[in-house]
Amino acid sequence: MSQPQADNPNYRKRAASGHLIACAILGLLLTGCTSAPSVPPPVVESGTQHSPKDAPAEPTDAELKPPAAANPATLALMDRSAVAARDGDVRGAMVLLERAIRIEPRNPAPWIDLGHLHLLSGALVRAEQSARKALALADESTASGLRAARASWLLIADIRDKQERPVEAASIRARWDRLTG
Amino acid sequence: MHPLNVHSSKNLPMNASNPRAQRYNDVMRWLKRLLLLFGGLSLVASIALGAYLYHLDGVITEIFDGRRWALPATVFGQPTELYAGARLSRDELTAELTALGYRQRAHVRSPGAFQQRGNALVIHLRPFRFMERERRETIVEVAFAGGAISELHEQPGNRRMDLVRLDPPQIGSFYPNQGEDRLVLGPHEVPRLLREGLKAVEDQNFDKHPGFDIRGIARAFWVNISSGELRQGGSTLTQQLVKSYFLSNERKLSRKLRELAMAVILDARYSKADLINAYINEIYLAQDGARAVHGFGLGAHYYFNQPLAELAPHQIALLIGVIRGPSYYNPRRNPKRALERRDLVLTLMHRQQLINDDELALAIEQPLAVSSGTGGSVYQPAFMDLVRNQLRDNYSSESLTDEGLRVFTTLSARLQRAAGEAIEESLTEIETSRGLEAGSLQASMVIANAQTGDLLAVVGGRNSSYNRALNAKRQIGSLFKPVVYLAALESGRYNLASVLRDEAISVPAGRNQPDWQPKNFDGEIYGNVPLFQALAKSLNLATVSLGMDVGVERIGQRYGELIGGEAPPAFPSLLLGALDLSPLQVARLYGNFASGGFDAIPNPVIAVLDANNLTIDGFPIALRQTIAPNVSEQLTAALMTTMSHGTGRRSPFAKSGIAGKTGTSDGNRDSWFAGFDGRHLVVIWVGRDDNDRTPLTGSTGALAVFNKLAEKIGVEPLPPIRGEKLDPQTGLRSREACGEVITLPLPDNLDLPYVDGCGDSIRDSIRAWWSR
User: Fold this and answer.
1) Most confident of B168-177, B340-349, B400-409
2) Which of A84, A82, A100 is nearest to A22 (CA)?
3) To 10 degrees, the CA torsion angle through A81, A71, B601, B447?
4) SS3 for B496?
5) In this structure, are residues B342 and B321 in contact, taking their beta carbons and an 8 Å threshold?
6) Does domain B75-169 have CATH number 1.10.443.10?
7) Fewer CB within a 10 Å sphere, N or C end of chain B?
8) pLDDT digits (tens, 9 = 90+) for B118-151
9) Dist CA B403 CA B614 (whole Å)
10) Other residues' Cβ atoms within 10 Å of the Cβ of residue B56
11) Burial level of A120, CB count in 10 A (0-12/13-18/19+)?
12) DSSP secondary structure letter of residue B450
C-alpha cells in the first residue's frame, strides 16, 4: 500500500485542507438542506432502465430535516478521524473510518469521508469508488440519503478537478449546488 | 626432553660405578620424561578443551540470543465493538467475554474479569495495543435494553462512552516449521509466583549455583534411591533450558557433559533473571497436533484460555507440574494424575512460603478447570491458510516466525464459532434423518461482510484439516444463473416482468457431438413464465433460452468482469453452471450482488504491524463498481423473490428480507447456497469428498445449514423493495385486495397489464384479456 507518511510536511498541509472538506461535508450531512434536487447523472453507463435512484422524488421541506437517529459510535469515529486527519495522520484517520464502516457498513457518511481521504492522498480511483459506494447506499427518497448523494457527487466533482476534467466537475456542481439554494 | 641431556647425565663419573644410583637415575629420567609428556599432553588437552569450550560458548550464546528474540507473528481477529444500539444481548456479551477468557466475579478488581450488576455487565477490560492506539485497562459498565446495548459508561466516574472494543481474539500465530509455537513474555509480564514456584519445584539453589548443582544431584539421587523410582531429576533450570534448545532425549554421558558445560557457560554469561525468563518462554508444555506449545505465555492460553498474568495459584501450579511430563501429566487426558502433581507443587510452594495456609487450602479445593478444546476458541486453521496466502508474497518465512509481527485480520470469532456449529449440527441432523452414514457428508462455508467484502468466517470442513473453502472446486450449477439474468437486465431488452419461454430446447454442440438438450430439474415444462419466476424457480429451459438470446460469450465476459478475472470458455452449458469454483470464489462472485454492485478482493488481513506497533502494511477496503445501481437493485429484488417464492421458500427465513440462490450439480453431487441479508454474505457447500451422489438438493442441504446459521446469528433484513405490485404467478400487475402480491422494481412507463379482474378500469381488464 502506498500511503503518504505522516511526517511529510506537504502531506500535513493537504491533510488540514482535507479536514476542512470533511468537516464541511459532515456539517452538510448534519444540518440538512433546503431546496429541491435535480436529477443526478447515472453512475454506470449500462442498461437503459430507470430506477427510483436515478429519479429521486423531490422531498418537501418537512422531509429535509437533520437525521433524527445517527449511530453515536459512527459519529464519534468520524469525529476522531477528522481530528487525526487534521493532525496529519491520514493513515490513522482512514483506520478510524474503516472501523466506522465495519460497524455501520450501510451508512454512506463514513464512505464519503473515506473518499475525501483517498482524494487527499492522491488515490483517485479509490476516492471515486468510495463516492460511488456512498451513492449506491444513499436512499434518495429520504432527506439524509439525498444529502449523502449530493455530498458524494460533489466529491466526484473534486475528483474530476484533480483529473483535469473541469467541464464534468462544473456540470456536476451545477446540478447539485442548487440543493443548497 | 632432549636426548643429548640424557646422554650427558649418563656419563657423570660420580654415578657410574653405583648400580643403585644408576637405577635411581633411570627412574628419575623416566619420571621426568613422563612428566614432560604429561605436561605436554595436558597443554594440548587444555588447548583442545579451551577450543571446545570456546566453540560451545559460540553455539550456546548464538542460540540463546537468537531464541530470546525469535517471536512468531501473532494473528488477531476483529474485536467486538460495544456501542449504544449494538445488537448484542447480555447473554451474548457474556459468551463473548467467556470465549476471551474473562472470568465472572462478584467484584471486578483486575483486568480479565466481569461482574453482573442488575441488568448490566461491568467489565474490567485488559490493556491492548490496537492498530491505531493503545488502550489501557478500562472498566466499562454496559447496560442493555431489548436485546441490544443501551448505554456505556466508564467507571469509576460514570462518564458516558460512545464506543469501546473488547480485546480481539488471537486466532493463530506463525510458528516455525519444526512446530514450535510460543507467546513470548517480558520479565514484567511474568507473575512472581511462577518464577519462584519454578525454583521451588525444579531448582531450589537456582540463585546460587553456577549452572549445575552438586547438592541438587545428590538430593535427587537420594530421593530416587530411597523411593525406588525416578522421582526427581538433578538438572538445574539452566541445564533444562540447554536441553530444551537441542530437543534431544539421548542418554549419553558425552551429551550430559556437553549440556553441563553449556549450562555453566550460560550461567557465567547471563544474569539469573535473563535465564529464568528464557526458561519461562522456552520450556515445552504440550503437543497440539502439529503444534508444539512452548512457554508459559502460550501454555496459559492453551490450558486455561487466559493470559498468564491472570492465573490463580492453582493454575500456575498445574503449569509448573506439567513440565516434568507434558504427556504423562496432561490434565485433559490424565486429570487425576495432573491433579496430584498440581497439589504436590502447591505443597512445595507452601513449604517455600510462596503461598500461605489459606491460599494453599483454597487452591487445593479448586478443580483443574482446564478449558475445553485447545486454547479456547483460538486457532482457526482454515482462515489462517488465507492469511498465509495473503502474506506469502511480501514476507519471508523468517519475518513471520521471528520478528514479533502483529497481524490484524477481519475474522469474527463469534461468526466463526456459529458457522462451525451450524455445519456440525445440521449435517448430523441430515445424516440421521436420511439414514446416511454418520460423518459421510462434508461442508464448507464462507461468511463475508456484504458491503466491504471482509472475510468474517471460513470453515474448511468438518473434523478435517483439508480446507474445502479454499481448495475444493466443485460445479456450481444454478448458482451461476444470476449472471445470466444480470446480463439480460443490462442488455435493456429484458426486465423482471418480461415473459420467457420455458420449452424444450436443443443446442448444437459442435461437430460429431450430440445436441445439448437440457431439462428442468423436475423434468416439467412451464411454458410462458415471467423472468423473475424463471430465476426464482431456477428453470433451466427458460434460462438457456434467455442466455442464448443474450449471448453466451457476453455472459462469460460479464462473469470475468465481476470476479476481476478471465472469462470462461463460452460453452452453452456455462448457462447452467458447468463451472467448478471453490466456495471462496463463489463468495467473490456473489459479493457483487450482496454489495449493491461492487467487487472486493476478499483479503483477510487488515494490517501488519511490527513489534513496536508501527504499521508495515495496510490493506484498506478496496472496492470496484461492477454493476449499475439500478440493475443491481433489480437483481437483488429477484434474488429476494427466489427466497420468498422460489427454491428458497421452505427456509424459515424465506420472507425475512434475505436474498439468495440455491444450486445443485448433476447427480446431486454438490448442494450449494449463496445468500445475503443486510449485513452478511454466506456461501455454503455440502457434498461428499469422494464426489459421490447425495440425496440432497441445494435447498435440502446447504440451505438447511444456512437456516441453522441464521437461527444462531439472526438476520438483518435488506431494505424493502420498492416498485410495482405484481401477481407472483403471472407477473402481471396486481393489488393486495386481489391476493398475494410481490413488489419488484420495473422500468418506468412499462406497459404491463393488470391480472385478470384486478385492474382499476375496464380498459385494464380488456387489456389483460387481450394479453392472455
Assistant:
1) B340-349
2) A82
3) 140
4) coil
5) yes
6) no
7) C
8) 999 999 999 999 988 889 999 999 999 988 999 9
9) 13
10) 18
11) buried
12) T
Mean pLDDT of the B755-766 span: 67
Angle subtended at Cα B447 by Cα A92 and Cα A110, rounded to the nearest 5 degrees: 30
Q: Which CATH superfamily is domain B421-713 in?
A: DD-peptidase/beta-lactamase superfamily (3.40.710.10)
CB A46 to CB B86 under 8 A?
no
Q: Name the residues of B annotated as catalytic.
A: 202, 478
Q: How confident is the model at residue A8 (pLDDT cuts 50, 70, 90)?
A: very low
Contact B568, B559 (CB under 8 A): yes
**Which chain B residue has the Cα nearest residue A101?**
B452
The region of weakest confidence among A10-24, B23-37, B101-115, B650-664 is A10-24
pLDDT tens digits for range B665-702: 888 899 999 999 999 999 999 999 988 888 888 888 99
Between positions 663 and 692 of B, the ones with CB within 8 A of A are 678-679
Determine the residue of chain B that is closest to A96 in CA distance: B132
Among B residues 602-631, those touching chain A with beta carbons less than 8 Å apart: 606-607, 615, 617-625, 627-631
Question: Does the beta carbon of B309 lie under 8 angstroms from any beta carbon of chain A?
Answer: no
CATH fold match for the domains B75-169 and B172-365: no
Q: What is the 3 state secondary structure string of B590-628?
A: HHHHHCCCEEECCCCEEEEECCCCCEEEECCCCEEECCC
Sequence-distant (≥ 6) Cβ neighbours of residue B717 within 8 angstroms? B656, B657, B658, B677, B678
Angle at which helices B540-550 and B481-490 cross, to 10°: 40
Domain membership of residue A52 (yes or no) is no
Choice between B404 and A104, residue whose per-residue pLDDT is larger: A104
User: Using the beta-carbon criterion (under 8 Å), do B81 and A96 form an inter-chain contact?
Assistant: no
Single-letter amino acid code for the residue at A159: I
Per the CB < 8 A criterion, the answer to whether B211 and B242 are in contact is: no
Best CA proximity match to B484, nearest among B423, B410, B559? B559
How many residue pairs bridge chain A and chain B with CB atoms within 8 Å of each other? 130
CATH topology of domain B172-365: Penicillin binding protein transpeptidase fold (1.10.3810)
If one counts the domains in chain A, the total is 1
**How far is it, in rounded angstroms, from Cα B481 to Cα B674?**
12
Cα-Cα-Cα-Cα torsion A8, A14, A16, A19, nearest 10 degrees, comes to -130
pLDDT at res. B556: 97
